[in-house]
Specification:
The protein is of the alpha/beta class. The chain is built from ten helices and eight strands. Strand 5 and strand 6 form a beta hairpin. The chain is flat, with a radius of gyration of 30 Å. GO terms for molecular function: carboxypeptidase activity. It comes from Marinoscillum furvescens DSM 4134.
C-alpha cells in the first residue's frame, strides 16, 4: 500500500514538473500574422528565448510568472502566466508600435524652422507597456502639499494632526519652498529652449535694440510661454508687431 502511494506521488510530481513550460504563438494584433524572431523573457525566472519562423515559442514558467515580449516595430508588452496556459497553447497578440496623430487641415506650408518648432511642441500619449492581468501602474507623486491644500478648512477638520505638522513644521515649509524653486527652474529651462531670441528675430525680422524692445513690449509671462504652443505665440507676436512698429513711428 505504501509502495503504491509512493508511486502515485512520483507520477504526480513528474506530471507537475513536466507542465512547467509554456508553449504559445505570438501574432500581430492587427493582421493576425505570426511574429518571428521576437524576444520572449520570463522576468520572474530570469529566462529568455525567441519565437520561431512560425511565431511559436516555448519557455519554462510557473503560474504567476510574467512574460515580456518585444520585437522591432511592436510595443513591448507583458502577460502574467495563467493556469490554462499549460493545458492549451494560447495565442498572444502584440500591437504594432504606431503613433496616431490628430487630424489636421493642410494650408499654407510654414517655414522649416516653424515646422520643427510645431513638431517639438506636440504632446504625444504615453506608449509604455503594462502587464496584462495586472493593474496599470500609477505615477508616484512625491511633491509636498500646496499652501492652498493645507489652508483648506476640510483638511484641518479631517486631518488635524497633519494640518498642524504641515502648517508649522519648519522642515515642511523648507520642503515646499524648495519644491517651488525646482518647479520654476524646470519651467524656465523649458521656456528658454522654446522661446529663443533667434526664433523671435526670424519671425519678426527685428534685430538689436528693436528686438529687445519688442520682447519687452510683448511682456509674456513665464506660465504663458510654457503652456502655449509656439504657433499661437507666433500669431500673437505678429499681431503685436504691427502695433509695435506704429508706436515707433509715433
Amino acid at each position: 500500500m505504501k509502495l503504491a502511494a509512493y508511486i502515485l506521488f512520483l507520477l504526480a510530481a513528474c506530471t507537475l514538473f513536466a507542465q512547467n513550460s509554456v508553449t504559445a504563438t505570438l501574432r500581430d494584433s492587427s493582421t493576425q500574422e505570426v511574429i518571428p524572431h521576437a524576444h520572449v523573457a520570463n522576468i520572474s525566472q530570469n529566462l529568455g528565448t525567441t519565437t520561431t519562423l512560425n511565431g511559436n515559442f516555448e519557455i519554462p514558467a510557473f503560474v504567476g510568472d510574467t512574460l515580456v515580449f518585444s520585437a522591432v516595430g511592436y510595443q513591448s508588452l507583458g502577460w502574467v502566466v495563467k493556469v490554462n496556459w499549460f493545458e492549451s497553447s494560447p495565442t498572444l497578440l502584440l500591437p504594432q508600435d504606431t503613433v496616431l496623430l490628430n487630424e489636421i487641415v493642410v494650408g499654407e506650408l510654414p517655414s522649416e524652422e516653424v515646422f520643427k518648432q510645431r513638431l517639438l511642441n506636440m504632446q504625444l500619449e504615453d506608449s509604455t507597456f503594462w502587464y496584462h492581468g495586472m493593474e496599470e501602474p500609477k505615477p508616484y507623486d512625491n511633491s509636498p502639499l500646496t499652501e492652498q491644500q493645507i489652508n483648506n478648512p476640510l483638511f484641518a477638520a479631517f486631518h488635524p494632526t497633519d494640518f498642524l505638522y504641515h502648517k508649522f513644521s519648519r522642515q515642511e515649509k523648507e520642503k515646499r519652498k524648495y519644491h517651488k524653486i525646482i518647479q520654476r527652474e524646470n519651467k524656465q529651462a523649458r521656456v528658454y529652449r522654446k522661446f529663443t531670441r533667434d526664433w523671435v528675430q526670424n519671425i519678426t525680422g527685428l534685430s538689436g535694440d528693436q528686438l529687445t524692445s519688442f520682447i519687452g513690449y510683448c511682456d509674456y509671462s513665464l506660465d504663458y510661454l510654457d503652456k502655449t504652443p509656439l504657433y499661437l505665440i507666433q500669431e500673437d507676436m505678429l499681431a503685436k508687431l504691427e502695433r509695435f512698429k506704429k508706436s515707433l513711428e509715433g
